[in-house]
Every structure is written in C-alpha cells, then in structure tokens.
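Work Package 3 (structural annotation) set out to generate three-dimensional models for the target panel prioritized at the project kickoff. During this period the team completed the workflow that converts sequence records into discrete structure tokens, so that structures can be stored uniformly alongside our sequence database. As a representative example, we reproduce one entry of 150 residues exactly as it appears in the project archive.
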Amino acid sequence: MATAHASTHTSRKSSASYAWAEGLTAFAAVMLGLAGLLAIFRGIMAIAEDEVFVTTPNYVFQFDLTGWGWVHLGLGIVAVLVSAGLFMTQTWARVLGVAIAGLVIIANFLSLPYYPVWSVIMIAMSGFVIWALCVSRKDDTGAASGGSLS
C-alpha cells in the first residue's frame, strides 16, 4: 500500500517537473526567436545605414556600422533557426541556443554605443534564454515531449 502511494506521488512530481521543463524550453524558443527576428531587423537597418543609430566617436570597440549590421543579421538568422530546433526539442538546439544567446550578448555589448537602450534589452532577453536553457534538463524535456502530461 505504501509503495503505490509513493509511486503516485513520484509520478505527479515528475509530471509537474516535465511541464516546468517543457515550459522553460518553449519560453527559451520564443525569446530566442524574437531576439533573432529583432537582430535581423537591426542588421538590415545597420546595413542600410539608417539614421536610427547613434555614433560615438571615442569607443574602444568601434567598428563600421555596416559591419555590425552583417554581424547582427547573421546572428539573427542562426537564432531563428535554433529557435525552430528548440520547438522540436533537439539537443543540438539547446547547446547552440546557449552559444548563440551568449554571442548575442557579446555583440550587443560591443555595439552598445550605436543603440544603447535596445542593446541592453537584447542583453537581458538573451540572459533569460541562457537561464531557461540551462535550468531545464534534457531528460525532463525529452520525457515531457514523448509522454502525456494529463
């Protein structure tokens, strides 16, 4: 009798854990997809040399605005592709998601003077993506997508 009660409690706890992990992965996929789309738009604006960007004359990491545009465009495209992989709960997407979010943080830090408020927002979004992908375990999300949570 005690064994049946323990197994019921364990299955409830693990199904809640699976739902939590699946929710974090979906959160990371949506946030990474949004960050990727916004990076694509930002890259296109920078390549077109739009007047939206601020220029700072004495910045240590100063690069050409068009160069930054290509960096953000490339990162954005890869982020959107990795986001699609996260929706399919692929292991490669989890690893690349953390890596791409880290690169997005670095790129936005280095391009901070060109668009400061937006860079800070992108850094925060990417930080949440890294947190969500690192908190949920692969065995939680794999079991959640293969089994029923009801």
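Residues 11-144 form one domain.
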